[in-house]
Amino acid sequence: MTPLPYALPAAAAAAAGLAYLDGRYGFTYDWLALSSLVKGTVGGTRNERRDTLNLFYELESVAQSSRSNHTWIIFQGKTWTYAQAYDIVLRHGTWLKRKGVQKDEIVAIDFVNSETFVWLWFGLWSIGAKPAFVNYNLTGKSLVHTVKTSTARLVLVDQEGRDKFSEAMMKEHGFVPAEVGADQAKYEFEMDQSEVPRAVRNQAKTPLQRQLNIVFFDDALAANILTLPPTRLPDSSRAGQKRNSMAMLIYTSGTTGLPKPAIFAWGKCNASARFISSWLSLKNEVMYTSMPLYHSSASVLGVCAVLRAGATICLSKKFSHKTFWPEVRSSNATILHYVGETCRYLLSAPPSAMDKQHKIHAALGNGLRPDVWEPFKERFGIQTIHEFYAATEAPGGLFNRSANAFSAGAIARNGVFVDLLMSSKLSIVRMDPASDPPEPLRDPKTGLCELCAWNEPGELLSKLDPSNIKETFQGYFGNEKASNSKIMRNVKKTGDAYFRSGDLMRRDKEGRWWFVDRIGDTFRWKAENVSTAEVGDAVGRHAAVDEANVYGVQVPGHDGRAGCAAVVLKDSFTSATSDSQTRLPTEQTLRSLADHVKKELPAFAVPIWIRFTREMQTTGTNKQQKHLLQKDGIDPAAVEASGDILYWFNGGTYMRFTKRDLERLQGGGIKL
């Protein structure tokens, strides 16, 4: 037997060795992700067998458990327990049935965040119907398109949205009024056959006649619904759901065109909620989100994940600097939910002695930029970032639980076990820089795609079952062309099928995955590929820059696209101007910015134009938009008409770009 004094050093050495191996190969890191994944998969299989995939059953289960009196929803200082929420949801289900809503019918919801949004959503699920979440920022053509493509005959609208559905707007887009009142409006219209699913077209005469009933919610209607009986319909009302059956419609952001309705299936809804619930150990947490519920990040990974754990979620009406931290503190939130540039906006506010006066210990979301990651954690005292990469329509996702600098800025990190699992599901393929639209490079002999090496950027693909695509990718509702455009065949072997992410990624030997750019955002200049994301990160690291959005612009007499960066400056680096609401940079700022980008970027990637703007154009989920900026291009008149000012790189610094400069470019007098 080894004497104890001699055994201690050996035990310590063994422990140190195990710690090293764990750090090197990520055993314990992988365990949490794998166990969460298994729970989601096994739970989904069990629920499908029992025909309880509908998350209404999850609410019912918690409401009738020992956690029935635990708070589920916090909104504007009011709270609702699971038992109270269950009762209210049933009353809303009663109201919806009285409105004639049938099993599997799609009903559109156009609401800002509120408790009523949740009651209607789960009220629809309680009677076996399906919600279509409408982006409350949409107006006019985009709004009408969204409602039409949902095929909903009933649209539920809150008071903030009623002006968007004015009689004049509806008439302008082909709707004929049948009845217009204070609390609802009914219209008739003919539907373009191309705008509805084939199954619906086959059942209808041509042209397809439709009626639309818009119900406007006010306090009187909300109060009336609460007087109705809380009727629970029999299980048969929700029966027959499979993992690939629609749970809801969630629309894409529409940054490159009109929004598309993505089918969010029960299997994905269950698995995603279970994974996040387990991965973050949500049971005793309070999650705070100011992100819109019409987006799957807040609705599924927020509300549904919290529901799965029997935990609490605090909803904010909309993101606002003014309400964010007061609501976080008053709700005792412990987990912060973000999307896109949310964290940058919080970081851009003046420092305060209250910055760490809260209970937040973790943040969950996607799109946290590398240049913001560590400053955000440090300033607000947040221990762990749970970054994920996913898309509403995609068959899976990637995850990074980062408590140190090792994986800061990465969209995902895998240990050796998860890496082995992912290697059979995910591939990164080389792209042909000359193709338009972008297509993968293929071996001329086999016709198969070329796989990227370590740290080489390429498009991320997710494996599908070629004989049953819709098992894991349900596509876009009523839009087979768009659905098929997301499928790539013959990738690694003849006959296989993969989902196209539309994103350029790279991965390293340490198991980290890095976002490079959106395909289409990357542009070609001077025979080189330029990543807008990487240039944006470099520009954003300058002390004067509050936010940067990089895109490619066409230049007369030049091939490819040149770099342009829309920039919001910090006030201390600007001087007032009389001819624009945008605050202009000082000469020192312009020189410093030019020196910075020359130092940080290769010559071909240096932005030739800088567009100084008051505020960045974003989607409802704080994701930067580029298409309107690209439309203005380098036309000073178009740029200045919006209140922005255009500068260009000239003589070692940035100088005002004028109409005369544009004319010289157009005439061939300037070569870049």
Automatic annotation (TrEMBL):
Its main location: membrane. It is a multi-pass membrane protein. It holds the Pfam family AMP-binding. Residues 534-623 form the AMP-binding enzyme C-terminal domain. One of its GO terms (biological process) is long-chain fatty acid import into cell. GO terms for cellular component: cytoplasmic side of plasma membrane; lipid droplet; peroxisomal membrane. Residues 65-399 form the AMP-dependent synthetase/ligase domain. It is found in: Cell membrane; Lipid droplet; Peroxisome membrane. One of its GO terms (molecular function) is long-chain fatty acid-CoA ligase activity. Belongs to the ATP-dependent AMP-binding enzyme family. Acyl-CoA synthetase required for both the import of long chain fatty acids (LCFAs) (C14-C18) and the activation very long chain fatty acids (VLCFAs) (C20-C26) by esterification of the fatty acids into metabolically active CoA-thioesters for subsequent degradation or incorporation into phospholipids. The transport and fatty acyl-CoA synthetase activities are genetically separable and are thus independent activities. Esterifies VLCFAs in the peroxisome matrix. The VLCFAs are actively transported into peroxisomes by a PXA1-PXA2 heterodimeric transporter in the peroxisomal membrane. This is Very long-chain fatty acid transport protein.
